[in-house]
Write a structure and sequence with these properties.
Quinone Oxidoreductase, Chain A, domain 1, Rossmann fold, single chain
């Protein structure tokens, strides 16, 4: 089968088209004939070697990357129940989606309702799960609370804004350009800050009458983390879940105290979809919200499988305005 694989760590240029054996599903696994694979920053971290020491997201070389996909069931391993050949399914996170086929643990798969197009279903996997656990579990937003969402026009950002509004929260979003501000506003953000034009921390404090926000969702990382921490109200929570500007290497404990006895966490999605029950519950919510018209999915661009390197370059340039997909 055709794959896009990584023979060595490096930039987008290391992504290489390879012919590799079609996987055979083992016990408890399902062979999926892929239609789409999602492009995410976790793919960049794996490709570049940032996760070389991660036990949660292992990166053995050579490897086929891609942590989410969707398509149809093409085969069943021993012991798999509840699925049949031909079923429409999607999944995340499980490495190997930049390929024509993937053997995926059955417990990670969810059936895609007939009302949900496959491209939208894939877009609601890794990014949807991330936005869901951030707003529903890591810091369960509630009416009357205020959150700061960085990169509000990105794939996760757009979904996170909408889920935060479903939870009843007030949303402040940061973006880098006026057209991105329009996107964040369209998704429901109450306030949008152009971070290149103003100091976002000062703007947050002005909007909140000096109180700060209950939670910051920060996927930008190195360039924003210090001011994100200082944008919190007393005993607030800063969630660093990515590093578009570079990974955060350290946070001084005393800085958390000086910022108002605030909390800091750097979670992995895998720990919030660690069981079959969690996977299904998050997918059920996301598919239901989509079906009810309460959650819009923005597909920014689609690339053919062979153009995965171009997709990575676009993602790393921080020019995305929604989801990037590979069409297999």
């Amino acid at each position: 089968m055709r794959t896009i694989s990584v023979p060595r760590f490096g930039g987008p240029e290391v992504l290489e088209a390879m012919d590799r054996p079609q996987p055979v599903p083992g016990a408890g696994e399902v062979l999926v004939k892929l239609e789409y694979a999602g492009i995410n920053f976790i793919d960049v971290y794996m490709r570049s070697g940032f996760y070389a020491k991660s036990h949660t997201y292992q990166t053995p070389l050579p490897m086929t990357i891609g942590m989410e996909g969707g398509g149809t069931v093409a085969g069943l391993g021993d012991g798999v129940t509840g699925l049949a050949v031909g079923d429409r399914v999607s999944y995340a996170p499980f490495r190997g989606a930049y390929a024509e086929y993937a053997a995926v643990p059955a417990w990670r798969l969810v059936k895609v309702p007939a009302t949900v197009p496959m491209d939208a279903a894939v877009a609601l996997m890794l990014q949807g799960y991330t936005a869901h656990y951030l707003s529903h579990a890591c810091f369960p937003l509630a009416a009357g609370q205020t959150c700061l969402v960085h990169a509000g026009a990105g794939g996760v950002g757009q979904l996170l804004i909408q889920l935060a509004k479903i939870r009843g929260a007030t949303v402040i979003a940061t973006v880098g350009a006026p057209d991105k501000a329009a996107i964040a506003k369209a998704r429901g953000a109450d306030h949008v800050i152009l971070y290149r034009d103003v100091d976002f921390r000062e703007a947050v404090m002005r909007i909140t009458d000096g109180a700060g926000v209950h939670v910051v969702y920060d996927a930008v990382g190195k360039d924003t983390i210090a001011k994100s921490i200082r944008s919190l109200r007393k005993r607030g929570l800063c969630v660093n879940y990515g590093g578009a500007s570079g990974l955060v290497q350290a946070v001084e404990p005393l800085e958390l105290a000086e910022a108002g006895s605030v909390f800091f966490t750097r979670p992995h999605l895998a720990d919030y979809i660690a069981t079959r029950e969690e996977v299904q519950a998050r997918a059920d919510d996301l598919f239901r919200y989509y079906g009810e018209g309460r959650l819009e999915v923005a597909i920014d661009r689609m690339y053919p499988l062979a153009s995965a390197a171009d997709a990575h370059r676009h993602l790393e340039a921080r020019g995305t305005r929604g989801k990037l997909l590979l069409e297999i």
